[in-house]
Specification:
This protein has 14 helices and 19 strands. By secondary structure, it is an alpha/beta fold. The chain folds into two domains: 175 residues, Rossmann fold, CATH 3.40.50.1950; 213 residues, CoaB-like (Rossmann fold), CATH 3.40.50.10300. An eight-stranded mixed beta sheet has the order 12-11-8-13-16-17-18-19, with helices on both faces. Bound molecules: cytidine-5'-monophosphate. The site of cytidine-5'-monophosphate has 14 residues, from helix 12 and strand 16.
């Protein structure tokens, strides 16, 4: 594990009872060699004294946005630039809600908004607050934008409840932070992810499209970035924010997506084709809006689009290729056959219907490779993406090891 030595860590502490554990976390970080600046929200001081943290870190605690003394030394924007990483532990439901909507009404929330540094959140709250749809939606939005969620753990709570919402233990959080600093599994590697639908133009105002929301591809881009990858996200038209640190290329049609993928290919070691690419496009795109007057029907002639994934995987010099298979029937057999015909290293299959798979926040996947398979249970796509990236990294590493020994 990479020590945090020499790294500049902003340790954010918000007002939860788990704040008492932040002193131990600060001590472990300092012992690991990190330069730690504690930033507390105003009410956090109700749970832990700033003097304790100043004594441990050797730096006065910052808690105010409008503090002439500190602003004269290192202003809040400088502090935002100074940070190599921001770790908020504990992160309360209220704090998570504030940063999820982009509030910057105190120093810590301002830093989260102003800094490009990786943002790690260790939630701590009552299990009912954690399970509340509002908290879950806020967390999902933050993870989608590239924040990394550390925990929470399950167990006894200070309020007497039992369940998820306990802050991870300081030693575990140190390990999480160290892992995030090496970028863990895809550090410095270039990865292409396609996402969303494609729109195939019929005339200047109409297109043929599909129901893909892009959520899975965007979640994958965020999860890969959290693993240190340089992600190029090539997306069809979707209404989603770009995850933190991700390079995004917007396209509309399958042909544009193919061109963008091929242009990015030379540097990439991994290609994840998550987009729902239209299989066909209109043979002719009318230069003017097609008129209905005087007609009772309209015949469209469609031609096949190139299969981007199959084309990439057929190349002699090719990245590790992962495909998706959205099937309504006979999921496993269809996915296996797709993996073979397209020559893929791995395929993630999901059962779709009008209400499941496309557009929803949750999904389940059956992940298949040449000599193994794993079923990932129905869960938010943001969490599913983290698990899928882990499986891809396992196969990617195993393949690299075989190549090196062969
Ligand atoms: O053949 P099918 O469309 O079911 O295959 C799905 C997989 O192939 C997905 O990974 C999708 O992104 C990719 N694909 C592609 N180009 C196409 C069609 C599908 O990259 N034209």
């Amino acid at each position: 594990m990479q020590p945090s030595g020499g790294r500049r860590v902003v340790l954010g502490i918000t007002a939860g009872i788990a704040a008492f554990k932040a002193a131990e976390l600060a001590r472990l970080l300092v012992r690991d060699g990190a330069d730690v600046q504690v930033v507390m929200t105003r009410s956090a001081g109700q749970f832990i004294g700033p003097m304790t943290l100043q004594a441990i870190t050797g730096r006065p605690v910052r808690d105010a946005l409008f503090d002439p003394v500190h602003e004269a030394a290192m202003g809040h924007i400088e502090l935002a630039r100074w940070a190599d990483v921001i770790l908020v532990a504990p992160a309360t439901a209220d704090f998570i809600a504030r940063i999820a909507i982009g509030m910057a009404d105190d120093l810590l929330s301002t830093l989260c908004l102003a800094s490009g540094a990786p943002l790690l959140l260790a939630p701590a709250m009552n299990q009912a607050m954690w399970g509340h749809p509002a908290t879950q939606a806020n967390v999902a939005a933050l993870v989608e934008r590239g924040a990394t969620l550390l925990g929470p753990d399950d167990g006894d709570q200070a309020c007497g409840d039992t369940g998820p919402g306990r802050m991870r233990e300081p030693a575990a959080l140190l390990g999480d932070l160290q892992a995030s600093l090496v970028g863990a599994r895809f550090a410095g590697r270039r990865v292409i992810v396609t996402a969303g639908p494609t729109q195939e133009p019929l005339d200047p105002v109409r297109f043929l499209g599909n129901r893909s929301s892009g959520k899975m591809g965007f979640a994958l881009a965020a999860a890969l970035t959290a693993q240190g990858a340089e992600v190029v996200l090539i997306s069809g038209p979707v209404a989603l924010p770009t995850p933190r640190g991700v390079e995004r290329i917007d396209v509309e049609s399958a042909l544009q997506m193919r061109d963008a993928v091929l242009a990015e290919l030379p540097e990439a070691v991994l290609f994840i084709a998550c987009a729902a690419v239209a299989d066909y496009r209109p043979l002719e795109v009318a230069a003017h809006k097609i008129k209905k007057e005087g007609t009772s029907s309209l015949k469209l002639e469609l031609v096949r689009n190139p299969d981007i994934l199959a084309e990439v995987s057929a190349r002699a010099e090719r990245p590790f290729c992962v495909g998706f298979a959205a099937e309504t029937d006979d999921l496993e057999a269809a996915a296996e056959s797709k993996m073979r015909t397209k020559g893929l290293d791995m395929i993630a299959a999901n059962q779709v219907s009008v209400s499941r798979g496309f557009g929803t926040d949750d999904n389940a996947l059956l992940v298949i490779w040449n000599d193994g398979r794993v079923a990932l249970a129905n869960q938010p796509k943001t969490q599913l993406a983290v698990q899928l990236v882990d499986l891809i990294a396992d196969r990617f590493d195993a393949q690299a090891a075989t190549k090196n020994s062969g």
